[in-house]
Design brief:
The protein is mainly α. It has two domains: 32 residues, no CATH class; 61 residues, Orthogonal Bundle (Trp Operon Repressor, Chain A). Helices cover 71% and strands 0% of the residues. It contains six helices and no strands. The chain starts with 6 loop residues before the first helix and ends in a 7-residue tail after the last helix.
């Protein structure tokens, strides 16, 4: 399930790292993604937060409206993925999202 590294993806990630505030994220992502894509990404993050916090699949679905397929995918990533969700959720708990 590893993302293949290439120049375009590197540039995308560098562009995201250059953003300095939540407002800049809104501006950039509104141009970069559809509203649905952004909402789907936010939903996945919330599902991950809920599952890490001990919520069941059913509870996560009820709270977020996510499908069982989305919840299952997030759970697989939490258990067998590259550790990205755990890293970000840990940073958010530590206050790493100060301007949110």
């Amino acid at each position: 399930m590893s993302l293949r590294k290439d120049k375009q993806t590197d540039e995308l990630f560098r562009s995201i790292l250059s953003l300095g505030s939540v407002e800049e994220c809104y501006q950039y992502f509104e141009d970069l993604c559809t509203v649905k894509e952004i909402r789907d990404l936010g939903q996945r993050l919330e599902v991950a937060r809920l599952l890490e916090g001990g919520s069941s699949y059913l509870q996560a679905g009820e709270k977020t409206g996510a499908s069982s397929a989305t919840i299952g995918r997030v759970k697989r990533c939490l258990n067998y993925g590259s550790g990205g969700y755990a890293m970000i959720l840990g940073r958010m708990k530590e206050g790493g999202n100060a301007d949110a």
